[in-house]
Amino acid sequence: MFAKRYWIVLVVALALSVIPAGAVLAFGEAPSLAERVAAGELAPVEERLPAEPLVITPHEAIGTYGGTMYTVAENLRGFGTDLHVIGFEPPLSITRDGLGVRPNVLKDYETEDYQTWTLYFREGMRWSDGAPFTADDMMFWWEDEVQNPEITEVVYIREFQGATIEKIDDYTVVMTLSRPFPMFEYTLATQWGYLGMWWRPKHYLQQYHPSYRDEAELHALAAEEGYDTVRELYRAMAGWSAKPIRVETPAITAFVPVEQRLETWVWERNPYYFKVDAANNQLPYIDSHVVREIRDAETIQAQIVSGQVDVEVWHTTLENFALYRANEEDGEYNTLMWQNDRGADVMLLPNQTYEDEVLAEVFRDKRFRQALSLAIDRDEINEMLYFGLATPRQYTLHPDSQFFQPEWAEAFADYDPDQANALLDDMGLTERDGAGYRLRPDGQRLAFAAEYWPSEPQTKTPIMELVKDHWAELGIDLALQPQDRSLNAQRASANQIAMNLWHGGGAIDIDWQINSRPPLPAGSITWGLGYNDWMDTDGEDGVEPPPEVERLYELADELSREIDPERRLEIGTEMWQMQADHVFHIGTVGMAPYPIIVNKDLRNIPEEGLWSSLWLHRYNPEHFFFDR
Amino acid sequence: MLTYVARRCLFMVPTLLVISFLTFVIIELPPGDYVTSYVQSLEARGMEISRQQVELLRMRYGLDLPFHQRYVKWLSNLVQGDMGHSFTYGEPVRKLIAERLPMTMVISVSTIFFTWIVAIPISIYSAVKKYTLGDYVFTFAGFIGLSIPNFFLAIILMYIGYRYFGVSMGGLFSREYLLAPWSWGRFVDLLSHLWVPIVVIGTAGTAGMIRVLRATLLDELGRDYVRTARSKGIKEIQVLIRHPLRVAINPLISTIGWLLPTVISGEVITSQVLSLPTTGPLLLGALLNQDMYLAGSFVMLLSFLTVIGTLISDLALALVDPRIRYT
Hints:
The structure holds two protein chains of two kinds.
Chain A: H1 4-17, H2 31-38, H3 45-48, E1 54-56, E2 68-73, E3 92-94, E4 101-103, E5 108-111, E6 116-120, H4 135-146, E7 164-169, E8 172-176, H5 184-189, H6 191-194, H7 202-205, H8 215-225, H9 230-238, E9 255-260, E10 264-269, E11 275-277, E12 288-293, H10 297-305, E13 311-312, H11 321-326, H12 328-331, E14 333-340, E15 344-350, H13 357-364, H14 366-374, H15 378-385, E16 391-392, H16 406-410, H17 417-427, E17 447-452, H18 460-472, E18 477-482, H19 485-493, E19 499-504, H20 509-515, H21 529-536, H22 547-561, H23 565-582, E20 586-587, E21 589-590, E22 594-599, E23 602-603, E24 610-611, E25 625-626
Parallel strand pairs in A: 1-11, 2-12, 14-24, 17-18
Antiparallel strand pairs in A: 3-4, 5-6, 6-8, 7-8, 9-10, 10-12, 13-22, 14-22, 15-19, 15-20, 16-21, 23-25
Chain B: H1 2-28, H2 34-44, H3 51-60, H4 67-79, H5 93-128, H6 133-147, H7 150-165, H8 184-221, H9 224-231, H10 236-242, H11 244-248, H12 250-254, H13 256-265, H14 268-274, H15 279-289, H16 292-320
């Protein structure tokens, strides 16, 4: 499948790996870096790497150095997640199968009670400017940033509240949490690691920190840089602000920015990067990474098909699948079909705490929700809008989850209008008006609106147009109101939306447990905001949850602190069984494939991967390389 | 004349004050604020934000203050020349606009020249040879130019550029020339991308200008002074340029002031579609994300330039047309 020479390299790599421990290993490095070493500008590779570099087992092959990777971003300095095709290094990393964790920046970690965590740093690891990266950098972040009220107003990360960190030696810290957090290792591997937390380059940032420098001087500096306060100055320098990456601030990522033009950012390899391949070649293989800003999503499609983008994962859509395939040859790329982590591409959320009491009462009856679900012709949706490539199913976990049970995906997911009608009749909603619509208990027509933000995915409106017809068969009058996301958010949080729509993303193991999102009514777009308010305020505000919802909150709370894996499995199973029985979220189709665009020469990207919001990190983008 | 200018300048102050208030109110009108859109975009990418965190963010951006406090703070900073900070970019508004200005002005100024160079000869031709085949062709083309939405024309030209000339779509440079130092090749590459926005933005303006110029010229051509000039035996082309054209150009001069804000703002939708590094998309993004101070300050800048531009127009018109007097 790949060229012969990689086999040779692999054999060499294997031969090298049997050299007994203690022998001095030769490390490989990029030719451009070797030149700088020869010229005396850079320390030899052995000194730049930590004593124990992280070894990445290649997905396909040991790579060759060189090449520039081009990608596009919608907004270079905005919310900017799409910038991070390559580029964040959390303490730990998710394994490629997505089920466990493995070392990343941290060499290792230990915990017995999930409350006290010992974290081991890599001896000899360095920042991109060559300064040592040690436990002090974590202590600086914790003591001078997180715990310093001048920088951080409120510690709002649950796990950090009441926690302490103690430095044992230069390469060891002990973090003690306020209570056991069994999912903390996953937290170390994903979310907050992504925000570039956990450490800061102390040697560089202390010049901008009020604890290390004269306040008056700092104020003058802040004014000079155009910031109002010392806090703003520090945050901007640390990368805490909207512009998360600065050329001057040292980093530990594979690529570091060297130039930030208006519409183009250029990144080059970090000569001090701490990872090597199985043959002890320092990563990354690719020389540089150029990100261009293309502000219009449609123009990005044009860029993709004309071969201007080497990797694209954020802006591809299934609707454009045929377009991608048709231009593969001209654009010199491959279209990979990855799996999506969405348990439902679009899910419907009838608001059980809606301000209209009569309607809320109807929504709270599980027979009503079951009827709504049974009346949806999911096969039609799949054939008409997803080329038959998605799976018609109830909203539940992805089959890769260890909690998954196949019957959950089938619960009330068959198209059965007769049974749906029978359920509604059974509820007593038998009266109808002149147009054939059912009447609510108070005599008004059973009508409500789906109000939603029509993007992400774009299929929301076409799906709902089909669902509107399906439900009309039941005698339910559904109106569609796509709206701007700000309006939607505001109306949702004011509890003015009868039914909202959202994607059912993150339906895989680590994601759903960390977020404890579904099946709970969590987040701002949900089916029971009033219940959340009730729980948050201990019953002062909001709507009292019915017993089954209260049970859901109890289980989620228990899950967040339960250590025993068997008991965790029981808890998770009960929670998702409840979703299947009560259909809090009504699914449509799920697990739609997600097209990924990859330059045809780019290697070490799996043909079949799982797309999720933190998608690429687990596939080690730093070991992608061009086979030219 | 000096008194006139001074009085006009004085009137600008209340005008701008009213504009600033209206701007702030209108930007505040849509539901939610920057934090709402920020949180939604995080949630869309699978992150979890609690209500407490949302309030905290609101506090950090100063959005928890009441409307009048924010307005007064913004306005007093603006008067001192501080346009405030953008939420989205985390940088001073002045810097964000300044770094986009050169390219915006290149495109705007070239577009203006394109418009004039095309529109003036065509309108003269159309007026002199009215109701001939040529007039009908130009009129027809002009109406098409007026009626096709710019973004649509941009997409069509981008497609043609890619299909038949192999020019990559979007942006101002191909990726090979993105980072290259200036050279002949890079300049040619820039030109091969630049013509699309100029033609697209210029077409609508050209068509409008042709209509206006043609109509005024037709009015003037029948006047007595034209006949007198002709009877003196002056060449037809000289008659045209010396007499009726000078009058016909008045509508152009009276709108010259509006070019000032246009040069700075660029063409929003076209720039967005073509992904040009101009100020247009910056304004659009700021309005969509409710990036208050960026949007507000930018709109104020444009309003200021419009007010100034109108004054310049009035003065220029008085200079060119002796019939106009200061009062």
